[in-house]
Amino acid sequence: MYTQALDIHPQLATPRVASADEHKQAQFEDTINREGKIEPRDWMPAHYRKTLVRQISQHAHSEIVGMLPEGNWISRAPSLKRKAILIAKVQDEGGHGLYLYSAAETLGTSRDQMLKALHTGRAKYSSIFNYPTLTWADVGVIGWLVDGAAIMNQIPLCRCSYGPYARAMVRICKEESFHQRQGFESLMVMMQGTPEQQAMVQDAVNRWWWKCLAMFGPPDSDSPNSEQSKRWGIKRISNDDLRQSFIDATVPQAKALGVSLPDPDLKWNEERQHHDYGSIDWDEFWATVNGKGPCNKERLATRVKAWDDGAWVREAALAHANKQQARQTKEAA
Ligand code: FAQ
In whole angstroms, what is the distance from residue 200 CA to residue 194 CA? Predict the structure, then answer.
């Protein structure tokens, strides 16, 4: 048979020496299997690097675009206390973007490259930030639900196999926790207020609930990146499992607040020990991800304007750094 003709007697075969690349691949896989950390100077497969740049840069973009919906309310916060909290929160989100851009830069992609991809519409950022903040209650609901969903998704990322991302996430999660609590507390105050305030909270919950469930990404059966990312220890828990945990954690919080969640199919399933829930509108999700959400154009235009308006700061900082360098070189000569 043809295949038998190709067989080589084991004793005649030359012993195979692992190539340098195979050795590096084996070391990489060993680190992943031992739950160790891959660091910037370590060898890594090109696809692992690409996946991380994709995820971390999208995450960074989400943080800085995510400053906009709440940022709109800084000048309209109902008290000095709420204004100070909101300014701190929005600043934190900017800081998260900076940690994440720095983590992505360790993989060899510059911040300029990442921002260019955002500004030209080639890069994704979280769907959730393409919806408008219509009332003050939206700010509380973003803290409670959007930051709540973000924490659920991001706690497992503290154990991501890539060291700089995992370490950035530890700090980010601590701050997100404050964000979620301030949102919940602000809603609790409104729910103890007038019927109009209570109605405003309920309306905001109704508008944000389904969008928050979609934040976790497409169903596992429709998530092209999940399997490989889980194998590499980038993602630890699947989109659907995180979504389910979020729902299970949020139902009692909604009860404590006194709001209802806008899903007639939401009910406890004794057998699964989880809540069942209705279907998410994935067409609407994909339309938003692909640029057709209610605020996509506005968000991008605001980011591009901020970048253009900041050109003089970048130029001044560069000129100053060049001057200092020239002075140091002269002194050393
Ligand atoms: N929006 O195969 P998968 C925050 C894309 S930060 C837009 O499942 P993956 C803090 C996905 O990129 C919120 N696109 O992808 C805050 C992929 O497209 P690609 C951001 C989405 O990567 C609060 C395609 O669909 N958090 O909220 C979304 O394995 C308040 C197929 O999906 C992070 O970025 C979406 N929602 O899983 C800030 C966390 N979902 O890239 C301000 C880190 C999926 O192949 C105010 N990221 N897509 O072209 C992750 O954990 C993951 O990347 C997932 C997606 C779970 C988002």
Answer: 10
Amino acid at 97: G
Which residue has its alpha carbon closest to ligand 1 atom 28? 217
Ligand 1 centre to CA of 314 (Å) is 29
Q: In terms of Cα–Cα distance, which of 106, 130, 94 is closest to 49?
A: 106
- For residue 267, list its beta bridge partners: 276
The H or E element containing residue 49 is: helix 46-65
Q: What pLDDT tens digit does each residue of the chain (333 aa) get?
A: 334 444 444 454 555 667 888 899 999 999 999 999 999 999 999 999 999 999 999 999 999 999 999 999 999 999 999 999 999 999 999 999 999 999 999 999 999 999 999 999 999 999 999 999 999 999 999 999 999 999 999 999 999 999 999 999 999 999 999 999 999 999 999 999 999 999 999 999 999 999 999 999 999 999 999 999 999 999 999 999 999 999 999 999 999 999 999 999 999 999 999 999 999 999 999 999 999 999 999 999 999 999 999 999 999 999 999 999 999 999 998
Phi, psi dihedral angles at 73 (to 5 degrees): -100, 0
DSSP 141-199: HIIIIIHHHHHHHHTGGGG-SBHHHHHHHHHHHHHHHHHHHHHHHHHHHHHTS-HHHHH
Q: Is residue 31 within 8 Å of 23, Cβ to Cβ?
A: no
Q: Is 101 helix (H, G, I), strand (E, B) or coil?
A: helix
| DSSP state string for 216-279 | T-S-GGG-TTHHHHHHTTS--S-HHHHHHHHHHHHHHHHHHHT---S-TT-EEETTTTEEE---
From the CA of 49, how far away is ligand 1's center (Å)?
17
Ligand 1 atom closest to the Cα of residue 70 is: 46
Determine the Cα angle at 68 with ends 64 and 72, to 5°: 155
Who lines ligand 1 at CB under 6 A?
A: 54-55, 58-59, 62-63, 66, 93, 124, 126-127, 142, 146-147, 150, 153-154, 215-218, 223-226, 229, 235, 239, 289
